[in-house]
């Protein structure tokens, strides 16, 4: 009986440690907000061409675990995307998540009306390829929307 108890305790400990490791593999809301602010500062200092190249670099300073920068114009065109280069240059105004939410339209509304804020939707995690709940922080800079999301 004592061996069974020890085995169960070890299994529970291992599961707990694995859960902690998973949590560290995901970016936090504070980290996403900080990455957007860093990206806006980079845009201001380096201009669009250099900044977009940095944002699109999958091994660059604007990619951390499941965190990446995306940039849209106010018409819904993707100008930079750190996780999916196939989206760059496309009009994504009608892009819907798994629940039918027009996410880019919501990004634009938040940017226009508040200047910055969070939008909730469902999106594939680039690390796991599983559709998950996601919240993206967006911030308006000039005529651009700079965003970074977290998977929950």
Short description:
The chain has 152 residues and is of the alpha+beta class. The strands form two sheets. Strands 4-3-7-6-5 form a five-stranded antiparallel beta sheet. The protein has a two-stranded antiparallel sheet with strand order 1-2.
* Proportion of residues in β-strands: 25-35%
Proper CATH architecture? 2-Layer Sandwich
CATH superfamily: PAS domain
What number of domains?
1
Mean pLDDT: 87
Q: Specify the CATH class.
A: Alpha Beta
> What does the main sheet amount to?
5 strands, antiparallel
Strand order of the largest sheet: 4-3-7-6-5
Coarse morphology: globular
The CATH topology is given as Beta-Lactamase
Q: What's the tally of helices?
A: 3
Cα distance, first to last residue? 39 Å
Poorly predicted runs of 5 or more residues: 1-22
- The helix/strand class is alpha+beta
Q: What is the topology?
A:
Blueprint: H1 2-25, H2 29-56, E1 63-64, E2 67-68, E3 70-73, E4 78-81, H3 103-114, E5 116-124, E6 131-141, E7 144-151
Antiparallel strand pairs: 1-2, 3-4, 3-7, 5-6, 6-7
Can you walk through the features of this model?
The structure is a single chain. This protein has 152 residues and is of the alpha+beta class. It has a single domain, classed as PAS domain (Beta-Lactamase). The protein is built from 3 helices and 7 strands; from the N terminus they run ααββββαβββ. A hairpin with a 4-residue loop joins strand 3 and strand 4. It is globular, with a radius of gyration of 18 Å. The chain starts with a helix and ends with a strand. The N terminus is likely disordered.
């Amino acid at each position: 009986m004592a061996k069974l108890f020890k085995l169960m305790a070890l299994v529970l400990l291992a599961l707990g440690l694995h859960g902690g490791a998973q949590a560290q593999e995901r970016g936090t809301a504070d980290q996403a907000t900080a990455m957007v602010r860093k990206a806006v500062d980079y845009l201001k200092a380096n201009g669009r061409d250099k900044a977009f190249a940095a944002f699109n670099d999958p091994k660059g300073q604007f990619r951390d675990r499941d965190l990446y920068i995306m940039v849209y114009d106010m018409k819904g065109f993707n100008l930079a995307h750190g996780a999916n280069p196939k989206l760059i240059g496309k009009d994504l105004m009608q892009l819907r998540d798994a629940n039918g939410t027009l996410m880019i339209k919501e990004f634009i509304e938040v940017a226009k009306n508040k200047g910055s804020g969070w939008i909730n939707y469902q999106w594939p995690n680039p690390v796991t390829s599983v559709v998950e709940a996601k919240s993206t922080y967006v911030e308006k800079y000039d005529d651009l929307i700079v965003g970074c999301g977290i998977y929950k």
